[in-house]
Amino acid sequence: MSTPLEKLIAKKIGTLRKTDLPNTAQSGEPLIPGIYFSWDTKDCDITFTLSRPRPNMLMRIDGSVKGTPRWLTLNLVLDEAEISADTVLGVVASMSGTGAKTLPLFIRSVRDGETEDTIFDEELVLNKGKRVSVALNRLSDSAFAAGGKAFHTLVINLPTQDFELALEDLSVFFSPAKTDAAED
């Protein structure tokens, strides 16, 4: 049974798969509502060329990076939600690429004017050959993302040097913590 957050992100990923991609991406400009790239523009020149070489592929990103950006990310807006402590968050990606060995992830949460990142314990593994990679994170009681209702964004860090990323598929899941009533 899917959670509302899983359904929301699956719908966004499905919409992205069917959308005609622009040839290039701009920082902060949505590919579709709720999915966008973001990067450090100070003293950096970054160009993303987007394509879809195969039907049903999410996208291929060819990144040209000049300078040393502090961040370069793919962002998936999860909207406002309450995520309980002990929930396991998972990201599954079928992908291949160059430019880095791993892609770190975090959930950026905004609540009552305060913003904090909850970093995943695991990272997505990036290889030249296509593979499925899984990154999991269990929210601790002290994780900001688990502190009540907040506006959340899943952030995937991309390589901060020239890179290629063929993103065949992407899935996000939330395995909620068991409550006492559910355990009975």
Rounded to an integer in angstroms, the radius of gyration calculated over CA atoms is: 17 Å
Residue-averaged pLDDT: 93
Q: How widely separated are the two ends?
A: 19 Å
The percentage helix is 10-25%
Spans where pLDDT lies below 50 across 5 or more residues: none
What can you tell me about this protein's structure?
With 184 residues, the chain is mainly beta. The protein is built from two helices and 14 strands. A hairpin with a 2-residue loop joins strand 2 and strand 3. The mean pLDDT is 93.
Which structural traits does this protein have?
single chain; 184 residues; mainly beta; six-stranded antiparallel beta sheet; 2 helices; 50% strand
Describe the structure concisely.
The chain has 184 residues and is mainly beta.
What is the secondary structure topology, with strand pairs?
Blueprint: H1 4-18, E1 24-25, E2 30-32, E3 35-39, E4 45-51, E5 59-66, E6 72-81, E7 88-98, E8 102-103, E9 105-111, E10 114-119, E11 124-125, E12 131-138, E13 150-157, E14 163-175, H2 180-183
